[in-house]
Amino acid sequence: MIKKETFQFLKDLMANNDRDWFQENKAKYEEARQNVEEFADEILIEIKKIDSSIPPEFSGKKSMMRIYRDVRFSKNKLPYKNNFGIGISSTGKGGDNPGYYIQIQPGESFVAGGYWMPQADHLKAIRQEIDYNTQDFLKIIESKEFVAHFGGLNQEDKLKTTPKGYDAEHEYIELLRLKSFTVFEKLNDNVLNSSKAVETIVESLKMINPLTVFLKQAIGNN
Length: 222
What we know:
Helix 1 packs across helix 3 (26-50). The longest helix has 25 residues, at 26-50. The chain is of the alpha+beta class. Strand 2 (99-104) and strand 3 form a beta hairpin. It has helices at residues 4-15, 19-24, 26-50, 60-63, 120-132, 134-141, 144-150, 173-176, 189-192, 197-218, and strands spanning 84-89, 99-104, 110-115, 181-186. It has a single domain (4-218), classed as BirA Bifunctional Protein, domain 2 (2-Layer Sandwich), CATH 3.30.930. InterPro entries: CHP02453, UCP028451.
């Protein structure tokens, strides 16, 4: 589970996002980070049973996103993120590949997965796979359990025009207009503070897995 002290550290960081405060509270940061690493290790034990593409040696420590922000090209100059991120895929925590993501943030925690903003050749391959095997894709994203959990695929990243090579009257043109293929489910703080936290997240990851399998097959990474 995620300890209440971890959430409290993040709340305090949100109110005191500067280097002096962070250095003075470095011990609390290390304790919170350790808690999230151990939490990620528990999740990885279970998800590796489902997704064999995740490297056996991939650990909670390796899955952790940096808390330090890259402010070089950002108007937001706050030095630290106000969350802990856990990234899981066959290529590690990042990379251009389908996978899973868990964010720990007071009031804004969530579990997500799929493929966010794939590179051009991957996007082309995914659209082609959806076009060729539409019913297989629909079976995943329109299943009752999937829709109940996630409400369907996120629609934010989408072309306003028709992708090259497809007819505007294509029956599934709205799917083909997508530029990302992801799902999202908000996590309640109380759930993450409970003994059911890992079980709850793993249940969601199990439902995301068929989507990631389809996407990996589309780009030839299976």
